[in-house]
Protein 1
Amino acid sequence: MIRITLENLLARRFRLISTAISVLIGVAFLAGTFVLTDTLGATFDDLFAEVNEGIDVEIRSAEEITTEFGVPVRGRIDEAILDDVLAAPGVEAAAGAVFGYAQFVDPDGSPMGNPGQGAPTYGFSWTDVDELNPTNLVDGRSPAGPDEVVIDAMTANDGPFAVGDTVTILLEGPPQRFEIVGVAKFGRADSPLGASMAIFDLDTAQQVLAEPGMFDAIDIVAADGVTADDLRDTLAAVVPDGVEAITGDQLTEEGQNAVGDALSFFNTFMLIFAAVALFVASFIIYNTFSILVVQRTKEMALLRALGAHRHQILGAILLEAVIVGIVASVLGLVAGIGVASLLKGLLAALGMAIPSGPVVFASRTIWVSLLVGVGVTAIAALAPSRRASTVAPMAAIREVEVDESGRSTIRMFAGLALLATGLAVLMWGLFGDPPDTLAAIGGGVVFVFLAVAALGPIAALPFSQVVGRPLARWRGVPGELAQENAMRNPKRTSTTAAALMIGVGLVASISIFAESAKASINKIIDDAFIGDLVIDSGSFGFGGLSPELAADLNELPEVDAASGVRIGFAEIDGEPQTIYGVDPPTMLSIVDVGISEGDVGDLHSAELAVHDDYAAEQGWEIGDTVDIAFAQTGVRPLTVTVLYTKSELTGNFFMGNEAFEANYPDVFDFQVFVRRSADFTSEQARTAVEAAAADYANAEVQDLEQYKQTQADQINQLLGLIYALLALAILIALIGIANTLALSILERTHELGLLRAVGMTRRQLRTAVRWESVLIALLGTSLGAGVGLFFGWAMVRALRDDGFTELQIPISQLVIVLVVAVAAGVLAATQPARRAANLDILKAIGTE
Amino acid sequence: MVALTDSEIYLTTNAAARAEKALKEFGSGDTSVVALDHVTMSVEAERFTAIMGPSGSGKSTLLHCLAGLEPLTGGSMYIGDTDLVSLSDSELTVLRRDRIGFVFQTFNLVPTMTAERNITLQLRLGRHPIDRAWFDTVVDELGLRDRLHHRPSELSGGQQQRVAVARALINRPDIIFADEPTGNLDSSSGQEVLGFLRQAVDNFGQTVVMVTHDPGAAAHADRVIFLVDGRIVHDLDGPNVDSILGQLRRLEA
Ligand SMILES: Nc1ncnc2c1ncn2[C@@H]1O[C@H](COP(=O)(O)OP(=O)(O)O)[C@@H](O)[C@H]1O
Ligand SMILES: [Mg+2]
């Protein structure tokens, strides 16, 4: 049987190549994701190891707050601890370290780097202890004094800047100019993974990046013969409460784990698309093997008659699938390396800077890819193989008939049951509270897709009549043939269409989701925003606009009110939360947050405003005191003083600047809201605001329309990435259409020869194949649009309480998808149509 | 056997189709096969011509070349006054569609189409109007009235061939080519189909060229042309089974 399998594979290699390609693409994506995340992980691991290389022990605050982004923030420690450390036994050298936000402004006045999306823009303190200094000066000297800075080689190159130049740096305070006294590399690299570095002497760093008298950490080199562990234990006894000592190795491991967590999120995100691609591919495999099995009925019957057992037939076909799976997976693995760099390029094109490092090809990548690729192929081929094994030895040599089996009642009930299950699970995931929301939603979606695929043959017939009738009238016999051939094997057609349905369905639902998000944001801005201008920093959580800007703006006669919005991280009941800081009276004259209880005038240093829904959930009432943990100040009791109803602009919590500044040492506005004075036109106000903001290179002055556009652009960017990834699923589906058509044409060789003999022109034949393809594509697109509309609606409804108040159905985009599907159908038909048209008529008539 | 050396004498003036020194070679060099060896002949209009000969003698090739399905290696072919050699592939296709009717041995019909739509296939391919009265005449003549809405798989072999004959007739073609039309039928169905081809000539003034190796079938024709090794070796006018069998015996000798 193995010989027979191999001979079959060779004989049908061209048919199987396209099947293999669909698996190959899915596997390549899977492997590419692994390679990319492993490579990134290794690159970051190396970075952490390099940074901490000379550190034997680090002393730092024990107060740590996890944030909603997963990256923890930590408080600072008193610089006086350094003296105790230096006096401790076993310490060779120690230095205080400070870091914070510092962003260079290029000679044209534009901010360099994009801390909101790309690598961070860091400021560091310089240390003269060589072991503790990860940088190497390549030009100039170390910084000394309040006006001097050393910059990283990447920034020097990009600026361009040279030693002796002056550079403007954006800081927590107003932007400052520094003299560049040196250029440094980070180890051997120009910069730490694309992050920029502004390096100041320790005093200056404390001043401009942090707080005078405080360090972020103290790094220590152990004396000869003292182990890091011993020194850590010694120092742990020396430092005060709330301060901890850890070894350099622990520090490295912590950093690596944090990056690993962030990457695993990214990994999951990408793997979802790999799964979609493989899911689509499984339809193609199923279909191809089903068709091949039908075409080989006679051969199978002969083998059975000659004494082959059922399990031998089953095994032979499964073996064929496994071999296809292995070949495809191996090629996919190799292609995965290319995919990894493509993905990297895609992310880079979307503004997410990704550092480069040596490619990591882990053994896990190899076995998972092979297992998944071969597994998917074998499972998808299982049902067709079983069907093949049930061929009766005396199976009659029948003429090709119109297959009616797609409309059985069993199929209908099975499909409906599957649909009901899928919908139930999906709804549970969206509206209920399952243990794993993502799994419930994903599972529901997969079930719904499978159900629609199962019900497809039933839907296919009325569909083809509605679309096919006018087609037949319009295109004549080619139109008729297209419609009839598309309906000849309703199962085959609808399985092929279902592959396309998946991609289209996901695109449709995501576009509904995104359009609804934009509409909801616009509505929020329209409803809540009384102001005229928004100044956006593009940062969220790291750096931003100096609070000086809002202060400056409030001085302008053209401005009635300007309020900065800060964000800080805190833990409430152990949960990471984001707290907004505003100047309440000013803020409320620009933004309507819907105060339902309390007076914002009462928000002082120990008060808090809470969104009413959250308060109700927690059982909090006005006057209650709640414990909130801050990184710098520890657990603080705050009094709930104000309740409000609109959470869209200020989240679940906000406090007055007094309270904010009492708990957060570093204060940046991520946005400033501005309302102009009625005495000035919006033109005048804008000109004045722009002039005042000119020094703040990262301040982007926007009117409301521009602000809405910025928000929409952010969504569009993510949307672009998702579409690009889903395009893969659609590409696989198109390969599937081409494959099915090619196989069908092979089956119909005889009648195509007849048609050509009695006078069908090549062009007419091509038209027939092309329209058959378009019909399949339209069926898939319609099913996909239907399913997508439903998914989109469900998602938006499920998130109604999270601000998705508007349901927006992007008709024009759906129409575009439809048009593209038709074009794609035409494209997929090109090769099969050409083959059909160029068929040798006499040979075709002669074909048995 | 004197007359057989000069093929020219088979030319007649009232020709629906003609071959002049038609040469058809398959392959090239050592392996080449000459299927038609400078055949010159004509098919008279409104007559029933049969082509006979041993297997591999070039009967089908002659038919295919005449029908514009196979290009010649040399010489010329005419349907009426149309020189097939000068036509492009798409012109030949249109010629087959509008001027030629076909009845093949098997697989005559498109399986997805009903009998009615198979019958009107050529007209519809050319988007020509269907002459309803003529359609009714043909359908009734062939006894297909109650089979019109059946698909080929629901028809017997004889019925399928009748549908093919109806398709060939509906077009009122210049010439109908039939390649072993009864080869796959039982004898009574075969007789039926031959009767219809005869009627097509007698009642409707059609021209029919049929390849067969069955003397009984050939006896329905007005004339039988005998091929051996790609050459015309005999031309029998007004044949009957006996004269055909006699000629075949002579050829074998
Ligand atoms: N497509 C082809 N390729 C090569 N040789 C062919 C082809 N078609 C026919 N022949 C050869 O041409 C000769 C005549 O064939 P054909 O016309 O089919 O004979 P008949 O119909 O009389 O049995 C035979 O020797 C046959 O093998
Ligand atoms: Mg023959």
Protein 2
Amino acid sequence: MISMTVNGRRQEFSGDEAMPLLWYLRDELGLTGTKFGCGVSACGACTVHLDGKAVRACVTPVSAVEGRKVITIEGLSKDGSHPVQRAWRAHNVPQCGYCQTGQIMQAAALLEATPKPNDAEIDQAMAGNICRCGTYVRIRAAIRAAAVEA
Amino acid sequence: MNSQSTSMERREFVQLLGAGGLVLAVSLSGCRRLSDALRGAPKAATTSVTPAAYLRLDDTGTVTVICHRSEMGQGIRTSVAMIVADELDADWSQVKVEQALGDEKTYGSQNTDGSRSIRDFYGALREAGATGRALLEAAAAKQWSVPASEVEARQHVVTHRSSGRTLGYGELVATARELPMPGKAAIRLKRPEQFRYIGKDMPSVDMADMISGAALYGMDLRREGMLVAVIARPPVYGGAVKSVDSSAAEKVPGVERVVQLDSAPPPSAFMPLGGVAVLARSTWAALQGRQKLKIDWDHGPHATYDSAVFRTELERSVRRAGKVVRSQGNAARALASASKRLQADYYVPHLSHAQMEPLAALATFENGKCDIWAPTQHPQAARDTVALALKIPVENVRVSVTLLGGGFGRKSKPDFIVEAALLAREVGKPVKVVWTREDDIQHDYFHTVAAQHLEGGLDANGKVTSWLHRTAFPSIMATFVPGTVYAGDGEVGQGITDLPFAVPNLRCENGPAAALTRIGWYRSVINIPHAFAISSFADELAHAAGKDPKGFLLELIGPDRIIDMTKAGLVAKPSNYDRSFEDYPIDTGRYRKVLELVAEKSGWGKPLGSGRGRGIAVHRSFLSYVATVIEVEIKADGTVTIPRVDVAIDAGTVVNPERVRAQMEGATIMGIGNTLYGEITFKEGRPVQSNYTDYRVARIDAAPREFGVHILPSTEQPGGVGEPGVPPVAPALCNAIFSATRRRIRSLPVDKQLAGGIASAR
Ligand code: FES
Ligand code: FES
């Protein structure tokens, strides 16, 4: 039995502990805002916060989450009002949107750790998150704007 | 390129009455009401009608725009709503967007590819909105017993001018239902200066969902009692299962069934690849189960496909004379007598779409009816192919379209949807088929691989007097028609037969090339290699002539004129993205204007530091004109960074400039990824690459530091926007690399070709 909190709610899991957190969130908890993009930690679409740090849910087995706190995009803010979400809206960042929840979670974790990142730090922190639609120029701009606002 | 031919002759339309609402269907022949249809009035089926949008007004005042085109990041749900709402003069806050079911009889073509949503439906969508406005005005006039000429609909309210009385749109719905539909003569389209939304920057209607995780994609579908299917497909295109041992897979907790699927032999068109499906109660269990399958494959006829070998064959193909597709003057003679003669060979490898959302589709099958939910660009093809595969009437297949996590052409092919339908029927439960990233890259409809040979002759003044272009690549048609070795007219029409250059002696040829894998269309299609070769070779000639590449391009394009395609020496059938050259001519003045604009905005000609360079390219595709300037900086170790990109686009009338800019940014960045690292290679019949780890796409560090998009103001008919940004990228980037390093890249991707650093490159 694995227990954890997800978006502030206690959850218990008693299946295959090797199952990646990604599938637990999506298939069992119905939290489909966390996306499947590659399954091998190469795209960032599945990014969630584990005890406040950005991790890739696709390579994080449920067993590694015992006793820890998970925040998904659904738990980042109640109403899309997190500074990063607001900046995303102001810059019209999403195209297809599929990568964007992972991007937002990664950016939120970056600003938590480095409130005023420079361009190199932004690129470095975001390099693991692919956007196949190519929204990177706006991602950079939105992160800079969120940093100023926060 | 659209090989699934969409019948533009399908002119019938159906009218539906929404619950408590009024549904309008618009066609070029006007509107009809359901009440007419119920009375048995003859259907307005003529041959020249394009049925378009639905619009529902309900008595609460809500305007529901029913979007029949698929949303994959281009912002079409917003643009469609903008057009309809503008002509309806609706209050934007009361406009909702509903995604249409797959039903081309009702909506007209829903095939969301070829950058055609706006260019094909702009007029019909405007008519839909204007018809609604005229109807509301008629309803108000009736309610007040005044002439319709005395009332005016504006921002969700109809006003009687002299008395000042008003009625909201919602209040008029009951009366409107009783009225005959205004005919084409009774509707008034707005003049452009009256537009409220068209031409203005509007945010996406899906924004809130996309940033909160609520947006629903195919991968996110769930149903009570659903099984998740993961399929082991033949590793080589055209292969099939010889035998399978599924005993270990069946023992995985959660796995319910293992089902073998037939493999359609090549050319398999839209049919699935077959293989062995593992169906389980969770995605994880299905994935675990698939790993435990022991399959003996028959690899079929393409088991020796090897990219290195194939490249040699393609290059041989373009060194010989090919099938002539266009010829003017006498290129051979002019080349022989040129004072300077240049030749170059270009190579562009296979690419994979690798759209962010791997393929996924949900199907149920009950009582002979199949219900599908899928991220499809082409719901009608999904319906037709599912009906064919299940041998049921197409009316018994219903397709609901989710958001698409990227498409780029991959999701117009419904093979993955048919898999879900077959499995749902087999197991009698809802089935969601999930492709992993590896499945997605290994079993793509690959962007083709192309070799090209160009020769050019300059006279003593450095003017181009002759131009020879040979291209050879496996055609998309090979995926549909057995024995295809030559390109289709539409394919050579993407860059070759539509070449706008004022060169007196021109010869374009197509060499044979068989397809040894499944080829499909990928964002901007065969324009990618063609634009790469053409704009690179123009740059090579400019340098050979000692001229500035931008000025040289302008000279090549020649004076402002409409090119007369009937006198352009075409041997292939003229092809213009499904439009006539009368409607959408090749206008060299528009090429000139985008070139001049991009040159001005990018600071073309201003000196740059060492290790830096700019490159320029221009291309017309999907009826829009795009010129791109890329500035590169090459680090000592050969790494390419991009300080700045400028793109100028003339897409005719533009609906949402905000999304046009976004598409130019996205297309350019995708093009940068294609150029710098994009490559799928085959070995022993199968792709070597399988995930983002070895199939590299652009990441944030490859994105330009500064990006300027410059939209030419225009009142011309709308052109495409989703694709035309891609073709100029590869040549602009490689021309910039040349300018910085004197190293000419003729084979993509750039990848490690600069690894020795600039010093060695020089
Ligand atoms: S799905 Fe986890 S990093 Fe790609
Ligand atoms: S918005 Fe489509 S992948 Fe990022």
Protein 3
Amino acid sequence: MKSAEKNLHYLINFDTLSKQGCVLGKINPASKIFVFLTFLIALVSINKYDILKTLLLSSFTFAMINMSRLKYSTFIKICVVLSPFILLFVVFNPILDKNIFAFYNYSINAGYISALTTLIKFINTTAISLLIITSTTVHEIAYGLYKLKIPGFMAIQIILMYRFIFLFLSDIINTTESIKSRGGYRGNIKWKDMKQIVSSFFARAIYRGEDVYYSMLSRGFNLQNLNADTRFKLKDFLFLFLSICYILLLRLF
Amino acid sequence: MSHHYVNIKDLTFTYSDGNIALENINMYITHGESVAILGSNGAGKSTLLKHLNGTLLSDKGEINIGGIPVTKKTLKKIRETVGIVFQNTDNQLFMPTVYENVAFGPKNLGVDGEQLKSIVELALKDTGTIHLLQKHPFRLSGGEKRKVCIASVIACSPEILVFDEPTAEVDPKGIKDIVNILKKFHHTKIISTHNLKFASAVCKRGVVLKHGKIIFDGQMEDIINNTELLREAEILDDY
Ligand SMILES: Nc1ncnc2c1ncn2[C@@H]1O[C@H](COP(=O)(O)OP(=O)(O)OP(=O)(O)O)[C@@H](O)[C@H]1O
Ligand SMILES: [Mg+2]
């Protein structure tokens, strides 16, 4: 349990990384979000056995990381923190996916291939999420979503998720601490209790989300009057155009 | 300058689970007045304060802030006028650093650059939290969180300040700091608390709530010396 807690603390600290001063941070948020979404769709839709294309498309993520302040060490650490979920999949996939796949003269269990592409896709998705967090402020995200004509209620959901995920993490830490302090980890925590703890936890998360939203509103937050530096400049067009061309080129051929 | 008044007329509010939290509240607060809302746990203090900036809207009764009725349509203007520090601190500290938290409000009002920086720093200095500037709010102590929340709202320079339990979790020195902060703020103040000493240090007038009803509205002096009233309202500390 110790190390899981450390990992959560690590994620929370990550939130305080500075958001300014990199190339990516200077790109118009609407153009950034659009490009990243396109990339994710292109990536996720690749055939699960097409490892070459998956790798090629990853070069885009690599380029983006180099344009940002995201350090490789931070990135790898976060991937490790999130890895337990994906590792389970990677381990069990070859058992579930029993197709045989011919590779030159070798025949390989297709499960390994699809597990590998999934792993690469996961790493890319994580990287892109981190890039958005480290290069965009809440106000910029809100503005970007608004410009992309995402309906207001959805934009608010996304913004809340974006801010709220870190509060949620600290909530998990507090809850585990309080369970422990009541002797929960001495081996006598029952499955029934656990179910109740988890469900009350989610109920609380929803109420908290509402409170967070109200306190944002109380301090003048409003989707319609955001004051980000909003003009679309040449560099934003270039970024948009070049990225989309690159992504489509790799994806379609 | 007499336009920052608050007028509450026949306000009744029922939560969706049928709990009648406020019943027939009538109150007029003039510009520059400081009013303490007193009452025991569950008396309805937070519920009342949440109505003042439209976080809760009731269909029974009216609230008027400086000539503007609090309705769905006027919320934007009302929220610029009324600054509210909620009771729960964690939910108000949603940005990654203390600095960004305090900057969030002014940014929404269109302030940026050097001006933003100086507003934020002033608010942090006024609340004695300038040394916490780059910390993650999650890492703060209870009292520090409270002070940062106060700074976040003061930085929006509201014309009416609403405080829900500003002294909870704060040590005596911290309470003294908060009294000083509040004394510096010359506009209308509405403060809910069960700390009688704090209430009388900041407010001349006090309103006592019990089970969602006003049972007394008058001078703080009269409240403090009225043991009978304090006992009825269950805020007498005779333990
Ligand atoms: N969201 C809600 N849904 C239903 N009932 C609620 C809700 N919030 C508060 N209540 C109930 O309304 C009543 C008044 O609550 P309120 O929070 O206004 O009290 P309070 O005077 O602020 O108390 P405290 O001193 O503990 O903060 C209580 O009986 C409470 O249980
Ligand atoms: Mg309360």
Protein 4
Amino acid sequence: MAVCSALQDDEVAELERAMSFVRLESNTSLVEEGEPRRRVYTLTSGLLRLSLALPDGRRQITGFLMPGDYLGLADDEIYAQTAEAVVPSGLCSFSVRDMDRLMERYPRLRDRLHLMTRAALRQARETQMILGRLAPSEKVASFLLHMSNRAAAYGRPESPVPLPMTRTDIADYLGLTIETVSRTFTKLKTQGLIRLPDPHSVEIVDKSRLAVVAGLTVH
Amino acid sequence: MALMTDHLVRRYGGLQVPRYTSYPSAAEFSASVGQKDHETWLRHLEPGSRISVYLHVPYCRQLCLYCGCHTKVVRRDEVIDRYRETLEAEIRLVARRVKEPLRIARLHWGGGTPSILGLDGLRSVLDSLARSFDFDAGLEHAIELDPRFVSRPLAQGLAALGVNRVSLGVQDLDDIVQLAIGRVQPFDDVRSAVEFLREAGIERLNLDLMYGLPHQTCESIQETCTKVLSLHPDRVACYGYAHMPQRKANQRLINSAALPGPEERFLQARAVAECFTQNGYVAIGLDHFARPTDPLAMASLSGTLHRNFQGYTDDDRPILVAFGASAISQLPDGYVQNVADIGTYLRAIDEERLPAARGYRLTPDDRARGTIIESLMCNFTADLSILGEPSHYVDELALLRPLIADGLVRLDRHSMMMTEAGRPFVRLAAAVFDQFRADDFSRFSAAV
Ligand SMILES: C[S@@+](CC[C@H](N)C(=O)[O-])C[C@H]1O[C@@H](n2cnc3c(N)ncnc32)[C@H](O)[C@@H]1O
Ligand code: SF4
């Protein structure tokens, strides 16, 4: 597990003692927005959907957690977002209290977690960049690149990008209609930028040109 | 330059893109448009409007293996007579729904093999048309013919019926290719067909060629072109073979291992273009060539070329009234396609119903996009300002960026143009403006 990579064997052993494993079925929730933050999680398999309740009662999807991502690290006393499993998922978790205790004893762990927190914040910023784009093609292209880059950062293949969530989830996340999301996938496919081998994965055919569409590179 | 093109062909050659003979493409028509809309839309036609008429005859004596058209083999003459009578009944049915009299400025017989109706059959249909419509004095009267069935009497008879333009299906003149596509048609047959037609006074000739056929090579195609040039056609169309064996059973008999790949197809299309342009023909749009004095060439040079279901045309009348199974009408309100199944078509007309099966109702946004796509396909340029302010087409601008980066497209504020290198890829640029309401791509053909 990623937090362990900076630690000595005895430190890892101690961390493992404090760790517990959680399995989640599809569409069950792990934590609710506003709940006191008691545990910190890291996803080992599956996919989680993060969401916020809007004042009018609707939910806004704010992101997706993929294996390797953390939940609750950057939050304060309460969880900032609701997290639910999109597909059956596995997570490791620590109680916040254990975590604080271990960090005091092992400064390297503290540094490590610090980096993780920074990564989580960077991700949130990237999400804002995706959502801040104007054109649907830019949004979808940068979303795909973001998912692909994160997978690569965890040592998994850049492509195909698994998308086990529904088109509605993606539409909700990007602030687009489902029709626009479907049409945009078709447009990107027609231009030879992606392939759609099955409804739940996207093959990135040409990463640099997809980045040009996303507006992330000046060509 | 050659290297760069190779790279682009590898990148884009295998993609599936509509041919944009209409926007939206027929693949996007739906059953939400039917008989009622067709009736209303016909009633909306201004009395006295000049229109084009298309007559579809979905029968052939035998089926060519490559054929992608709506056609069937027919052996019994009763079947043909029954269809012809129904076609005439459809003409009456439609005529009763328009504020008469509309004036036919262009008439096009397509198929299939329309001459299968026989001279008497053709005359009978023309008489029906004449009873319900006016004919323009300068009527352009065109028919698609299969050279294997063009005799001297047929040519004379067609001329007597007023036919003044003929399109002949040549496809390819190489023996091996002809065997592989199930269309054995020696050059002598084509030459005689041309001679019979000219003798009869039908001077305006188009020859259809194809590239991307099994066993074709650039060299074999150049030989075909040389023979075709010796016939001095006014126009030549050269279509890329669309191989869709899932949808066309006859195409399953074509050995797909013998088909040229995307790069080879690209080179073949270019070889054809070079043959004709180096011999005094003007390249028109994507796949047509015409002698400089031909109206199509003049329309192309003056920027008044249009795209229709037959390919390119100098027909500036946007109204097309089509008869026959699978035929598509283009009305000011939108597109209407007749049911393709012949049995269902016959039954509908028997019951005095318009046989409209599907179609598309145009919105102002569709019209703007259609104008841009048509302009790209015809002139390789487009004025994007008809979509409004640039903020209205940010998505299109985003999708154009890679094409601009590849040097295929140039954009100067709101005016867009294909570069010389970009022209063969114009369908990709056009697809940027397509809103793709339907999601099924298997029916489209390769991009080059
Ligand atoms: C209806 S046919 C023409 C008339 C006549 N039946 C003949 O074959 O001579 C129209 C033209 O469409 C083209 N065509 C037919 N099948 C095609 C396919 N699968 N892909 C591309 N072009 C095709 C051919 O060039 C053909 O001449
Ligand atoms: S190419 Fe022409 S003759 Fe051959 S099957 Fe098609 S329509 Fe009939």
